[in-house]
Amino acid sequence: MSHSLIKKKYDVAIVGGGPAGLSAAIELKLSGVNEVVVLERNSQAGGNPRHCGHSPFGMREFKRIYYGPKYAKKLVDEAIESGVKILLNTSVISFEKGGLLTLSTEQGVSQIQAKRVVLSTGIREKPRSARLISGQRPLGIMTAGALQSLVYLSDGKPFEKPVIIGSELVSFSAIATCRHANIKPVAMIEENSRPTAWSLLRLYPYIQGISFLKNTQLLEIHGKEVVTGVSILTDKGEKKHIDCDGVIFTGQFVPEASLVRMNHLMIDQYSNGPIVDQFNRCSDRDYFAIGNVLRPVETAGWCWQEGVDTAKSVLKSLDNSLEDIKQISISVQSPVIKYCVPQKISVQSRMKEIQLQLRFTEPAKGRIIIYTKNKELLSKQVNGLPERRILIFLSREITETMALAGENLFIRFQKEGDK
What we know:
Layout (H helix, E strand, L loop, with lengths): L8 E7 L3 H12 L5 E4 L19 H4 L5 H15 L2 E3 L3 E6 L3 E6 L2 E12 L3 E3 L2 H4 L2 E2 L5 E3 H11 L7 E4 L3 H12 L6 E3 L13 H5 L3 E3 L3 E6 L6 E5 L5 E5 L2 E4 L3 E3 L2 H4 L25 E3 L10 H19 L7 E7 L4 E5 L2 E4 L6 E7 L3 E8 L4 E9 L5 E5 L1 H10 L3 E7 L4
Parallel strand pairs: 1-2, 1-6, 2-3, 6-18, 8-13, 9-16, 10-11, 10-16, 11-12, 19-26
Antiparallel strand pairs: 4-5, 5-6, 7-17, 13-14, 14-15, 19-21, 20-22, 22-25, 23-24, 23-26
């Protein structure tokens, strides 16, 4: 869409045009908000599903199954039909209190003013440099996201027989991408004793003729101009060489929160995303955050629903009806708990049920205990695995008790058998 659509003032500006940002924009427009703009830094909106040429997408949203690109297109089409303005090739380079955004566009630098701002900047995979893998820098090293973009958007084929590092859902998506491009990975390498994704998926590499190497560590990448192989440390402590012509680093996602870090919003040291309350409001009440910028990583369908739900809170905020008497902090007290979202609870005169989302750093069987300084509020039996969603619901009775006490919350994990 033309940049002539940029106005000085908007009711809501949404930074990022993935499933979360688009669903929030659509919900806001359908609810009667006049001026809603989505600011997308890429040449197309739709987020990561644009280059995920596989299914399933859309069951939660549209009650049918789509491949990624068609799912992304449907979201964009619905946003445009509802009257959402989508500005492409537009990057937010800074934001200030009061909703003032500075933009970098093809026409130069400009500014817009928004009553409320919704951050939906998504996630990125941890690249090789952040994983501290030794070796030179030959061609043929990329993340799964870069591979998907190259294959599905540019019809590229960067290698013939790569190795895949990691076993998250996106790792198995990388296998599907390779199959689409007639690329034949030789191995999938996982440091832990089981796949990070569902155990049944371990059969998929074998069906495709790919070795699944668990308890195996990537030590070094070989090759000067192009990748010629990798060195690994096996589960038996042996150093071995694998011939390959590419390395695909997958998973280990981190929120794309560099914009947040450069500005005035508070960051959570555990999730590495912005600190939010149960309404997904940030430390500045004019700003909200949704989708995977809050935590790595959730599905497109989950992010879509989060956008819809948060849009309703944004509406109340615009009407000055999103009550906020005081805030209670939530503190994680066990290293096995990777993070908790939200990190704060806004106390209201009439409290409702609140959902907490946790992740574990390792397999953990035992009890999640939520308590204040003086009282245990909840104890729940869990059997969790790394990167699996753990949902804890604080009932209305608990939230009212908590609000009345006005004390901060603490979360700890008690391993089964411990006292």
